[in-house]
Structures are given as C-alpha cells and as structure tokens.
Amino acid sequence: MRKKIIAGNWKMNKTFDEGMGLVTEIVAMVKDEYNGSAHVVIIPPFVHINAVSRMVSEHNNVFGGAQNCSNHDSGAYTGEVSAAMIKSCGASYVIIGHSERRQYFGEHNDWLAKKTDAVLKNGLTAIYCCGETLEEREANKHFEVLKAQVSEGLFHLTAEQFANVVIAYEPVWAIGTGKTASTDQAQEVHAFIRNLVKEKYDETTADTLTIQYGGSVKADNAAELFSAPDIDGALVGGAALQSRSFVDIVKAMK
Ligand code: PGA
Predict the structure, then answer these.
(1) Catalytic one among 98, 107, 136, 190?
(2) How far is the CA of 176 from the centre of ligand 1 (A)?
(3) 156-208: per-residue pLDDT in tens?
(4) Between vectors from CA 30 to CA 190 and to CA 228, what angle results, nearest 5°?
(5) Which alpha helices (H) appear in 99-218, and where do they start and end?
(6) In whole angstroms, what is the distance from residue 102 CA to residue 130 CA?
(7) 3 state DSSP class of 225
C-alpha cells in the first residue's frame, strides 16, 4: 500500500521557543485525536531539527525533516548543511527543490538531482517538489514543465532508490496565495506524474510512489483533495504554523 504523508513546512518561521511550543501541541493532538496511519512530518528551520526530531522520536507516526540540504558531503561551503548532518540530528525527510529554492536561490533540476543523491545516500527520504508557474499553466505548458522537473531531477535513480522518494506537486500559483488547485486539476497532474514514473520504471514503482499536493492546503479543503485517488497527502505551509489547523489537515487523511 502507498504511504500517506502530511508534512508541515514551517519555512523561515518560529523562534526556538515558539517552535518547541508548536511541536509539543502537535504531538499531543496527533496522539489524542488521530488514529489513522498517515505519517506526519514536521519540517522546521535547520536550527530546530535536532530538538524537533527528539521530541517526536517516541511517536511512531511523527517524524522530523529538513527544508533543504547541500549537494556536497562536507567541506568549505560556508552556510551549507549536509544530509549527513541532518540525519545525525534525527530527521527522516528532506525537501528538495521547493519552488522558493528554485525561484529565489536559483536551484535547477541538475543541482537538485545531486541533492537528491545526497539525501538518499544518507538513508533519508527526499520530498522532491515540482510545480508550474501561473504563466506556464496559462500557456498550457504545465505538463512539459513538470515532465522536465521530474525527469531531470529524479530519473537517474534506480527503481530501488525511488522507493525513498516522495514527489510533492505544488503549483507555484497556489503557494501562499489562498488559491488551491481544484481537486480535478491536482488529480490530473498527480495521475500524469504517476504515469511518467510508470513509463520510466514499472507499475509497482509508480503505484507505491507517494505524491503529495501542496499549495494553500487548509483544514476545509484537505478532505476533498485527499479523496482523489492519486493524492497521497499534503505539503502544508501557512496552515502548518498553528497546531489546530495542521492537525485538522492530518485528521482529514483517514
Ligand atoms: P502554503 O505553502 O500551504 O502556505 O501554500 C505550501 C508550501 O510552500 O509547501
């Protein structure tokens, strides 16, 4: 069966004390209110990863993650953080190629392919993001863009490695804008991505791939999105900054 994953990406938000308070609340609410099997991933800024991962370690469905990592193993790369460091802090997941990294930090598919390698080499799971801009969608180029992002970033991997990859479809026009893709629009793209993976690898690799949707997911639209056959969870930004709204999204995944 395909793993369902709800991940909360805090982006550059929360001081240490604020973050610890939020995790404490999330963990308690998930434990008390959620008896489904989805994995819950909490993805704070780097400086909180160690503490967050320790706080969630006794809960078998809650994990820590990182928002980015270096493509290098170690060395003179001031300001960078390696996948091995993230692993040593107890995290399990790393987001690769979030649209904000692509847009503001010039991260390209070939670079992201190397980051994905670093993540997998260290026994972590990559959450590889893809998504088209509004202009690309309006020009009807979204499938072409998504195909390039997915194939150039991931298709050098073996089918075995692909078992540790999650894909997050996040249309750039829906991130932080309050405009969610409709369930039909998201489902169409998720099915397209799954089919790309099937054509490149095989049916089993495609069928077992978790594909999350991201972009203004909220408690009131999550259940409908999750009802689509190819939507296996969510990568949540804004609504992950408060325990109530985040856990309500988790609860929408039966
Ligand atoms: P949003 O962000 O939920 O605030 O739209 C999603 C994301 O960027 O992962």
Answers:
(1) 98
(2) 5
(3) 999 999 999 999 999 999 988 888 889 999 999 999 999 999 999 999 999 99
(4) 20
(5) 99-105, 109-121, 134-138, 142-154, 159-162, 183-200, 203-208
(6) 10
(7) helix
215 lines ligand 1 (CB under 6 A): yes
**Is the alpha carbon torsion for 184, 239, 129, 102 positive or negative?**
positive
Å from CA of 76 to ligand 1 middle: 32
Q: Does the CB atom of residue 216 touch ligand 1 within 6 A?
A: yes
Please, what is the Cα angle at 121 between 4 and 83, to 5 degrees?
80
Nearest to 168 by CA among 213, 132, 133, 208: 213
Of 159, 170, 155, 78, nearest to 112 (Cα)? 155
Q: Is the pTM value of this prediction over 0.85? A: yes
The CA distance from 48 to 64, in Å, is 10
